Amino acid sequence: MKRIFSGAQPTGGFHLGNYLGALRNWVELQHEYESFFCVVNLHAITIPQDPQELAKKTREVARLYLAAGIDPQVSTIFIQSDVPEHAELAWVLNCMTRISELDRMTQFKEKGRSQRENTGVGLFDYPVLMASDILLYQTDLVPVGEDQKQHLELTRDLAMRFNRDYGETFRIPEPFIPKIGARIMSLSDPAKKMAKSDENPNGSIALLDDADTIRRKLKRAVTDSGTDIRFDETRPALMNLLTIYRLLTEQTPPEIEEHFAGKGYGQLKGELADVVVEFLQPFQERVRGISDEELDSILEMGRERARNEACKTMDEVKTRLGLSGSGAPRN
Ligand code: AMP
Ligand code: TRP
Question: Which candidate, 109, 157, 165, places its Cα nearest to that of 130?
């Protein structure tokens, strides 16, 4: 059976873009693939985090995975720092990654390069840790949003480089980027993606926002000129709202256009708020319904399964590199 690996950071508010661009697809794909879904807390510390808050968010994200429909009997859900091989492989891959390759990463350019003086090395190195996550599990497919495409290309390059230099060791993963929803835009600025780090809280709808907050944010969402409700590429703010509506209602564009014929932005925003609230309320109830004990046992099981696989790959990597320690064959 082919493998999937994906992950998300336990920082900020997990939002509708994360769900529509990534999580939703994980839920669908988990039955066709052997799946590993990770809460990447080692990635989170590439920028300073409050320890208590980080610990809390890490568990919260695992709950969101479960509430979205990841089935722990079918898929492996685990926390990155529970499997030390991620950091171990990252070191090995670091030694094979060129500085110039990381310097080209657009995410780093956006997040770190502007303040080079006080940016940690970890942020620069972030894509190598991500490559390690993926390659440790001999992953075939990585379902992510559009913003991760470049990191996936680096992952493939590193895997091919290792295989070429030390012999076939890693499977070469492919990205899975959905045709619709791979880049949900900010509600307050349709030129920017919806992001956890957005300083304007009205730009994104968090999966744990209450109904009033959701309605208020959608009411304030910016719109373009023009009044009719159509799937029109030249009106990015409208396209974004319609994309969210489309994905949550599973209706086709013609059906949606017909439904909103003769109606305006106000009506669309109101109905979209209903749709989002109707989707998120039961979701939030499921989040609250997961007890600490249940979560502990799921994460414990996940850690065991993940480590088991990660160790197999790491043993092979070490042998390939001549890193075998005590107990290794002598020559
Ligand atoms: P992150 O928030 O960076 O931890 O991202 C977790 C997952 O959500 C990744 O697969 C991202 O590509 C995806 N993602 C993040 N923001 C968006 C967005 N605005 N639209 C679609 N997918 C997104
Ligand atoms: N970099 C990803 C993001 O910010 C999160 C991530 C870390 C990831 N490791 C991964 C995604 C491995 C897929 C596979 O969204």
Answer: 157
What was the pLDDT predicted at 301?
Answer: 98
Walk me through the domains of the chain, giving residue ranges and CATH numbers: 3-177+291-321 (3.40.50.620), 201-287 (1.10.240.10)
* pLDDT, averaged across the chain: 95
Which ligand is the nearest neighbour of the Cα of 142? 2
Kindly identify the ligand whose nearest atom is closest to the C-alpha of 133.
Answer: 2
Distance 78 CA to ligand 1 centre (A): 18
The β-bridge partners of 7 are: 38
98 alpha carbon – ligand 2 mean position (Å): 20
Just list the catalytic residues: 111, 193, 196
For ligand 1, the distance from its centroid to the CA atom of residue 18, given in whole angstroms, is: 4
DSSP track, 104-173: T-HHHHHHTGGGGGG--HHHHHHHHHHHHHHHHTT-SEEE--GGGHHHHHHHHHHHHHHHHHH-S-S---
